[in-house]
Here is the input.
Amino acid sequence: MSRPVPMCPIRPGEPCTLCQAYVSGPEDCQTVRLVMEDDELRAELAVKRREYRERRASGRR
Ligand code: SF4
Here is the structure.
C-alpha cells in the first residue's frame, strides 16, 4: 500500500513536491521551519490558509 502524499504546510492545498534540496518531506524542510519560526511569516501563512479555506468553501479553488 502506498503512503499518502504529504501536503506542503506553507502552500495551502498543494502536495509537497520536494522543491527544496536535500528534503525528504515537510518534516525536514528548512523552508517550512523558517516560516514557522518567524512571527510575521506565520501570520501571513495563516491569512493564506484562511483564504484557501474560504475559496474551497465557496466552490472556487
Ligand atoms: S519541500 Fe518544503 S517548501 Fe517544498 S513543497 Fe515540500 S514542504 Fe513545501
Observations:
- Residues 39-57 form the longest helix (19 residues).
